Amino acid sequence: MTASIPTFLLNTGDRLPVIGYGTFGGKNSSEAMYEAAKEALKVGYRFFDTAYSYTTEEALGKAIRESDVSRKELFVNTKLSQTFHEPKYVRPACERSLSLLGLDYLDMYMVHWPLAWKFSGFEFENLRKKDEEGDIKCIDVPLIDTWRGMEQLVKDGLVKNLGISNFTLPMIKELLTQCNIPPAVHQIEIHPNLLQEDMLAFCKENNILCIASTPLGNPGLFGAGKINPLAEPEVLQVAKKYGKTSAQVVLNWGISRGCSVIPKSATPKRIKENFVVFPIDSKDVDLISKIGHRNTIRVCDPFDAFGPSNDVFGEHKEEVAKWLSLRKSVNNLKSNI
Ligand SMILES: NC(=O)c1ccc[n+]([C@@H]2O[C@H](COP(=O)([O-])OP(=O)(O)OC[C@H]3O[C@@H](n4cnc5c(N)ncnc54)[C@H](OP(=O)(O)O)[C@@H]3O)[C@@H](O)[C@H]2O)c1
């Protein structure tokens, strides 16, 4: 017997499980992610989050095909990479993902980052290649042009729901004034060290469901000390009160704030542990939110990951200004040689 869990209602009328399984493998191989996805299916996960750039679509598709879970029970989301933002690449990119997954439609397709880069082919190793300046340069493709391509996928029956990811409030506001199909979800980094209170309030008001990526704060990613919400005293206190583990508390803190959460684990025991839903009293939700009020940390920073041209959240303005000025001096020097 597998466990089943509650769902959130999307603005399209479809329903999204409150817990999904994240497939960003990181250091884990595709084989490990295939085994992990098989385990997740066995435990009862029905919502799977992947992305072309994670290179796990094929492993996930294989696990799905080999399971006895019917297609209509599943909610599969994948993401359009930055190099496919030019409208002519949106459909081929979606078809590529469908083919890797072995599916004939997606439950959701989302714009992975509000960043457009030059097309560099479909080979994974070329997707995120930095130039000699340690940067990936953006090209001028308005988000609405990419979105029109996404809308066409819905009209063509390839995709059921559209989503966005890592957008800022001004970007969403602009998209909402221009789009024909509003996004059903916004996937953003949310955990006790990154509360995203304004974003959550705006999305709720506009009937866009937030999906919390990195919902556990990816403990250990940066080594001891930088971030581990699971070890914070407030989480330990609430875990003791409810007789749950820290991870279960942090995930249900996210769900209690109205988000679907998509933890990743390649460890069978944790895959099971993370698939537990229970209500958390609003006082305890507020207690855990104190962590983010005293220490805000972003785990997945596009400035670090993609270079200075990609400071989506405007959190590195000084470093970007210094970099631009250094770049100008170097270019001046080069032109004088
Ligand atoms: N849209 C975006 O730009 C974006 C960005 C980042 C992530 N995401 C999505 O969000 C998903 C989750 O984010 P994430 O993978 O970065 O981080 P996460 O789910 O917050 O954390 C994953 C890490 O936590 C460990 N872990 C899992 N369950 C645990 C438990 N019960 N106790 C202790 N440690 C536990 C895992 O270790 P083991 O695997 O070793 O068990 C792994 O190292 C991704 O897989 C991806 O689908 C989206």
**CATH-level-2 architecture:** Alpha-Beta Barrel
- Contiguous helical run count: 12
Strands, count:
10
Within the CATH hierarchy, at the fold level, what is the topology?
TIM Barrel
Low-confidence stretches: none
Bound molecules: NADP nicotinamide-adenine-dinucleotide phosphate
Shape verdict: globular
Q: N-to-C SSE series?
A: EEEHEHEHEHEHEHEHHEHHHH
Strand order of the largest sheet: 3-4-5-6-7-8-9-10
Strand content: 5-15%
Termini Cα gap? 73 Å
Instruction: Give helix % range.
Output: 40-55%
How large is the radius of gyration? 20 Å
What's this, in brief?
With 337 residues, this protein is α/β, with parallel strands linked by helices. The chain has helices spanning 30-43, 57-66, 87-101, 143-155, 169-178, 197-205, 233-242, 246-256, 268-273, 282-294, 302-306, 317-336; strands spanning 7-9, 15-17, 21-22, 47-49, 75-80, 106-111, 159-165, 185-189, 209-213, 260-261. The strands form two sheets. An eight-stranded parallel β-sheet has the order 3-4-5-6-7-8-9-10.
Describe the structure using short key phrases:
337 residues; TIM Barrel; eight-stranded parallel beta sheet; 10 strands; 12% strand; globular; binds NADP nicotinamide-adenine-dinucleotide phosphate
